[in-house]
């Protein structure tokens, strides 16, 4: 299944994957965490953003960080970001 995005881009929505309790979200240290997102390797995006909240900020405030395309195994591509806690 393809999903239409703005600017006439499409993506394979069935390839989109993330799990918060696996190798898609893991600590690097006591103060850093890496978050990974899987997409179809054929899908290329101008920007992939992580939108999140900090439990220490006022409720409703959202933080936005740009994820980098970290690697591609031929079938899937993986975007990652490391956040300071």
UniProtKB/TrEMBL annotation:
Coiled coil: none annotated. InterPro entries: Glyco_hydro_13_lg-like_dom (IPR004185), Ig-like_fold (IPR013783), Ig_E-set (IPR014756). It holds the Pfam family Alpha-amylase_N. Residues 11-84 form the Glycoside hydrolase family 13 N-terminal Ig-like domain. GO terms for molecular function: hydrolase activity, hydrolyzing O-glycosyl compounds. This is Alpha-amylase_N. One of its GO terms (biological process) is carbohydrate metabolic process.
